Amino acid sequence: IKKITTHQLQEMKTRGEKISMLTAYDFSMAKLVDAAGVDVILVGDSASNVMAGHETTLPITLDQMIYHASSVVRAVQRALVVVDIPFGSYQGNSSEALRSSIRIMKESGGHAVKLEGGAEIKESIIRILSAGIPVMGHLGLTPQSIYKFGTYTVRAKEEAEAEKLISDAKVLEECGCFSIVLEKIPAKLAKRVAEEVSIPIIGIGAGPDVDGQVLVIHDLLGITTEFKPRFLRHYAKLDGIITDAIGKYVQDVKSTDFPNEEESY
Ligand code: KIV
Ligand code: NA
User: Fold this and answer.
1) Following DSSP, what letter does each residue of 49-60 receive, concatenated?
2) Which residues constitute the domain of residue 213?
3) Are residues 259 and 135 in the same domain?
4) Whole-model pTM above 0.90?
């Protein structure tokens, strides 16, 4: 199987082929996501919400991200594996940003890192890239800054924030980032960024006129059903399928239907 590289993602943008990206946090799910042909697997710090049940992405640690990422890497044959650098292990300190990135690459075997922010983290990005580690940017509704925003509503609706976002995207491109995620911003603004910047722009809640899309796998599969923003499409309703199957198992154990003779030694 031919592995996806950052260069191939750039070629996909050039020829107008949309890039598919999904999260995964564990071996079994990553195997399914990779086999289904997803181009980029993100070991997102959304693991903090989806895997650990935290309200925000802030509590997850670098060690925990490395555990999730190494599990995913062992399952993947084709996709490019990108790993989020968690809150508190890169902001405001470029040598710590580099150290965290090196730990991720060395200990998990991931192929690239992603961090949130624009011009403020320029120095960190340059330093990580100088070590030969590919970097994906993340702008718009950056969940590690949720307490600054105070709300999960759409970002960059006002002119000033939109201009700052465009200028940040250009900074990330100039630094040498291979791609940028744009989260929950107006579709028109995302389209403008994708046109004005030559690297692939991956959207989540950023409309159709970008170079690719990303979703959280548990949201797409309908496992997490309380979370239903406008940008999310449920491709399955696994919550019901899973609880029905488990309910049936409980019934069969209680009624002594399971295990039967053929299921016994
Ligand atoms: O952590 C995550 O899942 C993400 C995506 C939503 C882009 O950063
Ligand atoms: Na993230």
Assistant:
1) HHTT--SSSTT-
2) 6-234
3) no
4) yes
